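Archive entry. Fields below.
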Amino acid sequence: MKKTECVAMLLAGGQGSRLGVLTQRIAKPAVPYGGKYRIIDFPLSNCINSGIDTVGVLTQYQPLELNDYIGSGKPWDLDRSNGGVHVLPPFQRSKGADWYKGTANAIYQNITFIERYNPEYVLILSGDHIYKMDYAKMIKQHKEAGADCTIAVLEVPMEEASRFGIMNCNEDGSIYEFEEKPKKPKSNMASMGIYVFSWKKLKYYLEQDESNPKSSNDFGKNVIPSMLSASEKMQAFHFNDYWKDVGTIDSLWEANLDLLNPKIELDLQDPNWRIYSRTPSAPPQYIGKTAKVQNSLITEGCEVYGKVDFSILFENVYIEEGAQVNDSIIMPGARICSGASVQYAIVAENAIISKNAKVGERPENTSNLQKWGVSVIGAGLTIGENAEIHANVMVTQNIEAGEKL
Amino acid sequence: MKKTECVAMLLAGGQGSRLGVLTQRIAKPAVPYGGKYRIIDFPLSNCINSGIDTVGVLTQYQPLELNDYIGSGKPWDLDRSNGGVHVLPPFQRSKGADWYKGTANAIYQNITFIERYNPEYVLILSGDHIYKMDYAKMIKQHKEAGADCTIAVLEVPMEEASRFGIMNCNEDGSIYEFEEKPKKPKSNMASMGIYVFSWKKLKYYLEQDESNPKSSNDFGKNVIPSMLSASEKMQAFHFNDYWKDVGTIDSLWEANLDLLNPKIELDLQDPNWRIYSRTPSAPPQYIGKTAKVQNSLITEGCEVYGKVDFSILFENVYIEEGAQVNDSIIMPGARICSGASVQYAIVAENAIISKNAKVGERPENTSNLQKWGVSVIGAGLTIGENAEIHANVMVTQNIEAGEKL
Amino acid sequence: MINNLVLGIIFPNVHDDLLSEMTANRSMGSVPFGGRYRLIDFSLSNLVNAGISKVGVIAKSNYQSLMDHLSSGKPWDLDRKKGGLFILPPYGNGEARVYTGHIDALQGAMNFINNSTEQYVVMCDANVVSNFDMEAMIDSHIKTGADVTIAYKRGKLPKNHRDIMSFQFDENSRVTEILLSNKIEKDCDFSLDITIIERNMLIHLIEEASSRNQTNMVRDIFQPNVKNLKIYGWEVKNFAAVMDSTKSYVNVTEELLKNPTARKQLFTSERPVLTKTRDDMPTKYGLSCDVSDSLIADGCIIEGTVKSSVLFRGVRVSAGAIVENCIVMQDCIIGKNAHINHVTTDKNVVINEGTSMCGAPSYPVFIKKGTNV
Amino acid sequence: MINNLVLGIIFPNVHDDLLSEMTANRSMGSVPFGGRYRLIDFSLSNLVNAGISKVGVIAKSNYQSLMDHLSSGKPWDLDRKKGGLFILPPYGNGEARVYTGHIDALQGAMNFINNSTEQYVVMCDANVVSNFDMEAMIDSHIKTGADVTIAYKRGKLPKNHRDIMSFQFDENSRVTEILLSNKIEKDCDFSLDITIIERNMLIHLIEEASSRNQTNMVRDIFQPNVKNLKIYGWEVKNFAAVMDSTKSYVNVTEELLKNPTARKQLFTSERPVLTKTRDDMPTKYGLSCDVSDSLIADGCIIEGTVKSSVLFRGVRVSAGAIVENCIVMQDCIIGKNAHINHVTTDKNVVINEGTSMCGAPSYPVFIKKGTNV
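PREDICTED_STRUCTURE:
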């Protein structure tokens, strides 16, 4: 039997409920990002660029769009006779059926899948982060250190450390302690949720974990702590480049606009580290005579006749003459009508902002800065003429003309 | 939006528990058949040959092997940019998650999938039958009759009619009554479980059915009867060619050996109606000097040095010199050692029948003909030297040398 | 269903000489057009959108870039087990030589045509840009019982094209006369070189003509047989243009910028124009950029001024640069404070910092692939 | 990982003349072999099984059947976005002409080679049948620091092959002498024409040689430079055969039947020989059939006698027919009571009812494609 050195397992099952209306009908990894990508493009592209061509994607929440998006894996060069990308939903066995109970259980339920490739290592990834990372380097370090588990860590500002899972390390990089959201963090090394395991070890601990009825079957809460307490060799792998968790509306908005920030290094056009995506067939973008576009990302299929500043337009967005879009993200097929203004907002797929409607507010214009935040218009909704949507509102149904929210 | 005339939905979720050890780790539609096929090759090939290129495959039981087998749909020419074959497992929504409760519920849960293609008609298929059928003819009749639902029916011997769902029809082919396994059947027109629905009607009845908490959400038990009682236009479509339900060990065995019966018309080599399958890379079959092969189907990768008569060998089967195989089905990778004899049996994948072991019995050699039946050896099992497996035994674990069962 | 009823054939090389500057290292079919396409994409998409699932491309020379572009046919959903895309280059078998006209091109592909089972054939030249309902044209061909149906456009004749047919019709759109004069000044009905014919009739006509060593389909088959063959016209009312010179290539592009209806008809979502993707990121508009009235593909970085121009994928317009009335092909770099006007640059051209190049509306300048100016 | 480190190049046409009967309408690479393969499958599978993911096939003539066989490269997992399979036919660009030797073939593909980024190149001729661990050969090339490593086999020299090298080595397997005599009678170490070289060095050597109008890689590059270049040999211990005549083609096939070790080495499941599938059903053995010592592909129907023969896909042996010591290619029909012995039939041959054809072991008869006997 042919051996595959490393199989990647991508946890894409979470609902991402903090993204609210954006993940009502799609799984979080399928959320659009950066003008023509989906969040999942990043781990998938990282895999193929790192030479990992066998990837299992674990799904259970609203997988239809994600399944179709992944398809045969062609856009990421992951359609292979041996290996390639496989979507792994939960399933029924001859004795009973289970949804995935936790991250570790999801892997446990797919042991058969992993064993078919007879791997030395298993790489655990999640579908919630925007970053470019060479997993091959991490696997190399894992091998060279003779580790049982290697965890990618990122330095975070000390004051934010208590929001993360923190790894406390010895000088040689070995981890002696893991604290989940510690009140008094001892270090600022946050786990990125990216693990390399030696497969034999992982299999042992997954089986142990499964037989413990009290476990919540989660990597961070159960598997990593029990490996630590059994003194397995755990190493930290340091990562210093751009990394962003896009778990909240504000962080998703920020991560998008980071692409417009010349100080932030996230080059999506690097020929040595392409980020691949499945793109629809759309004509070139047309920028009309009346348009004024600055500091923005715009993609094919868009037509722009209004003003666009510091914003990201996905495919087939239509900005009418006299419309204005600032500091916003406009997802595929949305239309901003004449006289409408969209600021500090995310407008989801195919939404329509009618004439003279206003969506979102600049922080400096808000009465209560404490309550300020990015506004979100759900997919396919219509905001009526002259309606006003204030800051920090999540719109989940059509808004009548003139209404204020 | 582009319109697809007809979307096919293939119900492949059942466990097929009557196939016992053969479906312990794989779904029934993935059971090998005919030397190089799987059961699901028949409905999939029928679809593409009928010009239907959009197929949803509903799975929930042990789908890993089936998913991999279907893959991108390439072997059936069903890897399409628009349409193609899609595997549809159950999933979680923002409010709750459900396994497929019944055949109708499985379709109900995938209304979103169907609606994306905006079809006029939906064809419901199952993955349990061996037959070649031009669905285009059935859809044509459905259209011309202006029917709401067309059900494919087959004439069965009157004495067996009470085992089937029986359609009672008027002279014009319209169905006035449906009886599930009637004790006193009024006709011998059995439903083949193949339905064409006008999508709007089906959607309406699926939603009605779903809102009825007493319904078991099954086409035969609920949806068809309620359409009939509402006087919707239901037509029968007559089918006269080879059709075989492979739901039991005996019928699976029979359906295989039918391929060797010159009186039975099931041509798998017809250039106008190819049955496609995903085939592994194996060298040509080698028939050795000591071999004696008659009236059998043998495929690539086999090596035969013994006697094979009235049998079907799948890929990479090895028959040693001095071994004897009669009236049997030997699935991929199995090995029959020298001196062993296999008769009236199904030997599943990678099983080993050791030296001088005996598996199965001829009906004429059985003491009690009432209890006679085909014997089955489960996948990967070893039958020890000189062991004897009598008729009608399903072997689910390794058998020691000399043991008798 | 059109599927399995009609075979498509594209001639990617037949008019290479008309765009000689752009076809020095590529076939007509692989000339870039419209910001993100190659000319062959339009013919291929028309065929595929009409439901045709088997297409032969009869190549002659300079077709390596065409092969790279078409590869397995996946973007057009033509990577099929049955049918799909067939590239038929010269020396591929005993028959195929480097051809000169449609007749010997078809003669070289006779094996392919003979072994097909489709009843009809649609043949397209690659220098036509249009997006129309070819299925309707096929239906009309079948309904009228025509021997040959040829798509035509009403308008001014493309004058550089020596072999362009213009038609006279009777009241049923049957062609009564075929003219090959390029002197016609007023609007006329000229051929788009998209032709439907029964496969068996095509085989017969080609064999007849080859046996007489004839090579020119228009002069040797259609014109002499206008009375014997039932030739019908099918008017393309949508935007359609025949490229017959570098200047007409520029004019057609300008038309797309000026005329929103033309753009809408060519880029309708009903029948998308399909092409190979390139994994570019969205185009980045810088802080100081000034862009208007332009068609722009993905992967560009624009920090300067772009007006009434078409930018292909991966073009970089540096700060202070001005690009007006230009067609800038893939991966060109316009340096700081450079200024180009009425210029067409082929792929990978670099306009250095501060350089100025200026054509005239009546005489656009063309800069060859890979040049550093 | 070999991936992205080594580029593969196959010459499917270079020795067409050696199998002239079988290459009348196809390239050497598409000659059927071993029941279900084409010769090129062996080179391609060796490359792919070594982890190479970019392969160029430099075609010359008669390559339409080769293109159909290779199509998108899917069976070899070579339909990639990065790398994959590239067919490089003549007239594809300004450089590529109909070549005569390896040097001008490579010269015509220079764009492809230049634009690749791999450090090494493995070149294979298509008339060699073997299945060996090419990854180990590549590792050895890197470890020894050789300029060139050539795979060789110890045994009797294939005598019809004019340009076949035999080697003398020093104790480190470095080649000290290259002989081109085909008079050598005893066992020698002869080349399998599978060559590893650094890409940049290859480019340099080819440019040098072309500038002198040289075309023959063996005579013009390797032989004169045996002292300047560090040329190493790498012995293939597995079964390996060079096809240099129709007779040797038959002999190699016979060897596969006679020698279980050869069969096992060629068809190991560790490194499967990959080929295009055809959707045939399993082979049907009739009631009265008598089959022994034969390699048989799927899709056959056998009602007669088959002994010591190879049947390709879709062959039909009718009742009463006898096939002995034969190679019967795809879709041949052997009629009732026909008898053939020591005969090789190309594709689609029909042997009519009762007909008898008989070659000798030393002189097998060959029947051309599509013949009705």
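CURATOR_NOTE: The two ends of chain A are 62 Å apart (CA to CA).
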